[in-house]
Predict the 3D structure of the following.
Amino acid sequence: MLWHLLWVTLIVVIYNLYRYYHEDNSCENSPVETDTSDNIQKETNMEETISTRQLALNTIEHIGSEPKYTEEGYIQFEYQGVIFLMETANDCMFVNLIWPWCHSFSKFDIDEFARVRQVVNDINMRGLVSVFYSITDSDDVAIHIKKNFLFVPQIPNLEEYLRLMLDSFFRTARTLDLEIEKCRLQECER
């Protein structure tokens, strides 16, 4: 009985080794078209010819905005009357898009701070964009919206992609204002 189990095990091992070896060889000779070194070289050259920063500048110009550099190295541009900042790096495929000062209030208004904190936490839990606040040198607390997203030339219709990202900022700002107002109304009803 033991010999039968050993023979069956040996046959299974040999079969699997044969199959493994046969599949590796058949993949090399298969008629499926693979990338040649020329195609890989063309893709590499295309990716190297335009940096993320240059791609961002070109795309911002294509959506009808005029990009400028800030002292901190951000790309600043206006879209639908709002000033946005874009942080890019040539060796990174992601960009950070920021809407600074989309909402503000006095840091001495404790009730407003509690409302804003609750709404900011609720929006951040949804995970579409990041909303955060900062306390300035003046007596204001500024609310900012930030989004990190992929920005590469392989994305089809890059201008519409950027517009979609910018529109998500406007939706978030509307949600922020509406939810703060709802909190105010709920406090008044109590």
Observations:
- The helical segments are 2-28, 37-49, 52-62, 110-126, 158-189.
- Residues 26-32 have pLDDT under 50 and may be disordered.
